[in-house]
Specification:
Blueprint: E1 3-9, E2 14-20, H1 34-41, E3 42-44, E4 50-52, E5 66-68, H2 69-79, E6 87-92, E7 98-103
Antiparallel strand pairs: 1-2, 1-5, 2-7, 3-4, 6-7
């Protein structure tokens, strides 16, 4: 069964969805699911390795800058109680498909 999760990029502050084979365990990072992320958002680097990169075409961040959306939202809610959490929009991924992105109003 696939589990849809939301992931936030620290660099561009957008969030995007990904599908994992299992629900992430508590206290794990997105890096714990690097292989699945590379399969969905992988780009081949000059060294021939595949790295998961942000689907926002204007962002060059990789998986090292990703966090679970829920972790971010809980942290923002704690510090900015009452602030808006997300504004969905659509952006074009590097792979040419449309992905749903969300911008955090609280982080801006």
């Amino acid at each position: 069964m696939e589990h849809k999760v939301w992931i936030r990029c620290h660099v561009c502050t957008e969030a995007f969805s990904a599908y994992l084979s299992e629900e992430p365990e508590a206290n794990t990072t997105v890096m714990s699911h690097a292989l699945e992320m590379e399969m969905q958002y992988g780009e081949t680097a000059e060294d021939g390795q595949v790295y998961a990169e942000c689907p926002n075409p204007e962002c060059d961040a990789n998986i090292m800058y990703f966090e679970w959306w829920e972790s971010y939202r809980n942290r923002v809610t704690y510090y900015y109680s009452g602030a808006g959490h997300e504004v969905p929009r659509t952006c074009l991924s590097r792979h040419g498909s449309s992905v749903t992105c969300a911008l955090s109003r609280a982080a801006r």
